[in-house]
Every structure is written in structure tokens, then in C-alpha cells.
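Deviation from plan, reported transparently: iron/sulfur cluster complex.
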Amino acid sequence: MTETKIYEAYNLLLKSFGRQGWWPRFDNNRFIYNKDFKNSKPSEDEAFVISISAILAQNTNWKNVEKAVINLNKENLLSKEALLKIDVGKLAGLIKPAGYFNQKAKKIKEFLKFNKEISRENLLEIWGVGEETADSILLYAYNFPIFVIDAYTKRIFNRIGFKLKNYKEFQELFHKNLVKDYKLFNEYHALLVELAKRNCRKVPICGNCPLNQVCEKLI
Ligand code: SF4
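Because the crystal trials were delayed, the predicted structure below was used instead.
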């Protein structure tokens, strides 16, 4: 039943919103959405930008991340080598649009020191990288089949009718009930973000919500 509902929700979202092409690749000073879903593994450079963007995306919306990344690109700072050379204060000024900029600049500097094998365990050892950021990096930069849980996912699935509490419980819901496929996890998470923007806001707009028929609306 749970499995059927989770797949049904995915299919309804995909039918309504279409592919989201997430995580957008940065090229030629703009983000490009990968909507035809070739979804090839990001190059090393692309993976680096996705990872930095995942840190910048903490507690802010994507538009603000875009502005911060564009600022970094204008200064030719979208590489590990370049960011290592820049002073943390200057970095903070450039990423100001993403909010919490002093803290995020320090987090990026910590991330630059990382030189271990990419794994959830190792990423979580970095100061400033929590579960959501680590899982975003693993899924979107490195194609690991790991479901990303964010505040939107928790809100939506609690309202649908799953009474879960913490990150681990939500992640297990998806890991146990979906085929472990990074493409599916990639698209599903992106569709949930879109749903949270369009319908399942703090004050939900249920009338035209694609999930109306499967949602218990526990608001
Ligand atoms: S029907 Fe309402 S509460 Fe349920 S997912 Fe849609 S917007 Fe959210």
C-alpha cells in the first residue's frame, strides 16, 4: 500500500509537471536544466559546482543560489584551486545573495579541505555538511542512489498521511519502497520541490494539486 502510494504520487507529479532537469549544470554564466534527462554523470568540474551550490542552498531558495554562483563565476572562482586562494571575507561578500554568507563562506572553505573518498560517512565529517547537503552532493553530483530529504519532503509526506519524524525515517520510507535508482530519486526530489513551490506551501493550495486524490491533507 505504502509502495503503491509513493509510486502513484511520483507518477502524478511527473505527469503534471514534467521532468525538472535537476540539478542544473552551470555553463557559460547560466544554469542549464537537463530536461531531456540524458543525466550523464557530471564531470569533475560540474560535480564541484553542484557541491558548492548544495552548501549555498542551505536555508535559502534556488534563485539566491544562482545569484551567488554567478558572482563567483564573474570572478573566475568556480574551481577548487581558485577558491582556496581567496580570502574568506571576500568569498562571504560574493556569496551574500545566498544568505548566512559568513557561515557559508567558512563552510565552503572547510569543504575545500576535503580529500577523502566520496561517501556519506566521509562527507558528514565536514563541518557545515549535514545530511541534506551530503545527500544532495551524493545524488546530484555523483549519481549515488540516495534520496534527499528536505523540509518540503517532510511537509508534503506528513500531509499526505505518513506520520514520520526525523530525516532517517523519511529517507527509509523512500529507500524501502522505491527501486534504488538514482534517476528516479533525482526526479522525485525535484518534483517535490516544485510541488512545494506551486501547491504544498505553508498554506497549501489543494484545489489543483496533482496529489489531491492520494493526499489525506493532514494540515
Ligand atoms: S493536496 Fe494539499 S496538502 Fe496534499 S500535497 Fe497537495 S497541496 Fe499539499
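Residues 156, 159-160, 199-200, 204-206, 209, 211-212, 215, 217, 219 surround iron/sulfur cluster (CB under 6 Å). We consider this an acceptable substitute for the interim report.
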